[in-house]
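Kindly go through the entry underneath: sequence plus fold tokens. Please state briefly how this chain folds according to its tokens.
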Amino acid sequence: MNLVIQSLAPIAETHFKPLVGLARGARATPLDAHTLRIEEANPSQRADLDVYCGTHRLDYAFIEPGRQLRDFGLVAMDMDSTLITIECIDEIADFCGLKAEVAAITEASMRGEIRDFSESLTRRVALLEGLGASALERVYEERLQLSPGAERMLAGAKAAGLKTLLVSGGFTFFTEKLKARLGLDFARANTLEIVDGKLTGRVTGEIVDADVKARTLRETCAQLGIEPKRAIAIGDGSNDLKMMAEAGLSVAFRAKPVVREAASVAFNFVGLDGLLRLF
């Protein structure tokens, strides 16, 4: 396998020899100042590499030689804390003074400590009852930011011929705005019920949980005429695991431990554009 090492800061040459040794690889080739490829690396060395790379704030990934981004046909992304830096529901809750309570439930859900995502979402949304819908616009305008490297990753994926899917346990208010802003091909999320300009504390329609995320990936691949193994799935929370398991390559982005352990690749330090440097 090729081992691709990435860093936000330039990778010092002093890392080359230790990394080749730890990977039991053949040679190290710098691809740019922030990326190093080690050929003929041994995937059984993950545990040692994990310690070294974590200590030095390096991200690593084992990739099959010759694999290219254009081999894939779809990149599917979670929204909250993945494509964007915030959890929208936590920020909405801040406008009714309940951010701490809602964020605690969100964190437990994303870590996999609350097994039923639908129940978790229902509990959190219920706390928003009576809040003016204008809070949604304020969250989008004042607090929502794209994750580092998001636009560059999307541009690279599109240039390689991949379609893009945003699939979120969050809300259509945000996914539809991001779909239009970023030129995404597909989006799916939950719809907050609004009556007389206020949130009712309910969502309408089927809740987008882990199973629905996985099904949406499969259905989108079928629509594109490709196998799910030609999809890349990027996420950070436990409700992304089933979607990530369907894909041919899964990326844990600034993710919870349960997600990092299950994913093909984990980006703990670099931006989303680290995906492009793998190939």
User: Anything to note?
Assistant: The chain has a mean pLDDT of 96.
